[in-house]
Specification:
Radius of gyration: 20 Å
CATH architecture of the largest domain: 3-Layer(aba) Sandwich
Shape: globular
Number of strands: 18
Oligomer: single chain
Number of domains: 2
CATH superfamily of the largest domain: Thiolase/Chalcone synthase
CATH topology of the largest domain: Peroxisomal Thiolase, Chain A, domain 1
Largest sheet: 10 strands, mixed
Structural class: alpha+beta
């Protein structure tokens, strides 16, 4: 049975800050942000957006009534969950009016969460071939103002419909994965900002890639020449290139050029959104599929997922006939075109304007947020959500 990605979409908030201007305000050479880490713009979530609404908005645009009826599993990968008990998936399930006879859960392992969700979805569909699974990767990356990680913040979500006989990409079964207990990045339950050992995390990202790549080659007999492109989890867009370069000497100059060129295309959306943790790898995949117009049907695309702490996995997918007909290219172009730039001072104000954590009630003005689904406030410790399309 062929199982994979039938639909894929994403959402990012309508506000962003220009990385050149942020660099100037931080007394940093702009090239350090735009070239050194490879970021141009950073998405800024208003107080009316959280991981739930970002995911719901991403899924809203790709699901039709038939999908909502056939979905019997919602798996929400995130490290920006809003509740220690209730899953973010349950909120999205209700906001989108999905078939009530479904499972809805949340999974967590840093940026690896959405990949874990995809593998769970494949197993579910293997047992229930007529089912569809909604996989969500949604996060808000926060390190704090004037911190070393500030330039690698971002916000957004990717939604994927996983099914049998998918229209976009069949996911191949052979995969290589690795787990090690390390402290390269973490966020204790008492903190709304992450802690990171940047140098160590970069080293581990590359080391994990090298190890799962070697294991993948042994399990599959495949090499670099068998891939049209390899997409990477992108905490910042220069990171994946560092990993790719460690294995390029295994192949010809022609293949090196192809993989490097396609890698650059795959980073375009991420360069203009920032780090979205669980969704970053799949935003990179979406960038490649939508912007590389001559990407051949039948191409094998490698996917490297890394979640600090740490779990890494390398797997692959095959692009299906007429896959481009099932993408939402114009819709995503419009999403980018409609964004509004904010000044650094405005960004700082938005960053510090957060929901109360002391149990206070609050009512928010959602009129300024163009998103269909928003956080409208907190009442009696319960977040209130609004779907404006209802």
């Amino acid at each position: 049975m062929k199982i994979g990605i039938d639909k894929i979409g994403f959402y990012t908030p309508h506000l962003y800050v220009d990385m050149n201007k942020l660099a100037v305000e931080r007394n940093v050479e702009p090239e350090k942000f735009t070239i050194g880490i490879g970021q141009e713009k950073m998405a800024i979530p208003p107080i009316t957006q959280d991981s739930v609404t970002l995911a719901a908005n991403a899924a809203l645009e790709i699901l039709d009534d038939n999908d909502k009826e056939q979905i019997d599993f919602v798996i929400f990968g995130t490290e920006s969950g809003i509740d220690h008990s209730k899953s973010a998936g349950v909120y999205v399930h209700e906001l989108l009016d999905i078939n009530p006879y479904a499972r809805s859960i949340e999974v967590k392992q840093a940026c690896y969460g959405a990949t874990a969700a995809i593998q769970m979805a494949k197993g579910h569909i293997a047992l229930h071939p007529t089912s569809k699974v909604l996989v969500l990767g949604s996060d808000i990356a926060r390190y704090g103002l004037n911190t070393g990680g500030e330039a690698t913040q971002g916000a957004g979500a990717v939604a994927m419909l996983i099914s049998a006989d998918p229209k976009v990409m069949v996911l191949e079964d052979k995969t290589a994965y690795l787990t090690k207990d390390i402290m390269d990045f973490w966020r204790p339950v008492y903190s709304d900002k992450a802690f990171v050992d940047g140098k160590f995390s970069n080293e581990q990202y590359i080391a994990f890639f090298q190890q799962v790549w070697e294991r993948y080659k042994k399990q599959t007999g495949l090499g670099l020449s068998d891939f049209e492109a390899i997409c990477y989890h992108l905490p910042y867009t220069k990171m994946g290139l560092k990993a790719l370069r460690t294995v390029l000497d295994e192949t010809t100059e022609e293949v090196q050029e192809r993989l490097t060129t396609n890698y650059k295309v795959s980073t375009t959306y991420n360069r203009n959104v920032g780090n979205i943790y669980t969704g970053s790898l799949y935003l990179s995949l979406l960038s490649l599929l939508e912007l590389k117009e001559d990407l051949p049907e039948g191409s094998r695309i490698g996917l490297y997922s890394y979640g600090s702490g740490a779990v890494g996995e390398l797997f692959s997918g095959i692009l299906q006939p007429n896959y481009r007909e099932h993408l939402y290219v114009e819709r995503h172009k419009q999403l980018f075109d409609d964004r509004t730039e904010v000044t650094v001072a405005e960004y700082e104000e938005i960053f510090q304007h957060t929901l109360p954590t002391d149990g206070s009630n609050i009512e928010l003005d959602i009129g300024k947020d163009p998103a269909a689904i928003c956080v409208s406030g907190i009442t009696e410790h319960m977040r209130q959500y609004v779907n404006k399309h209802r």
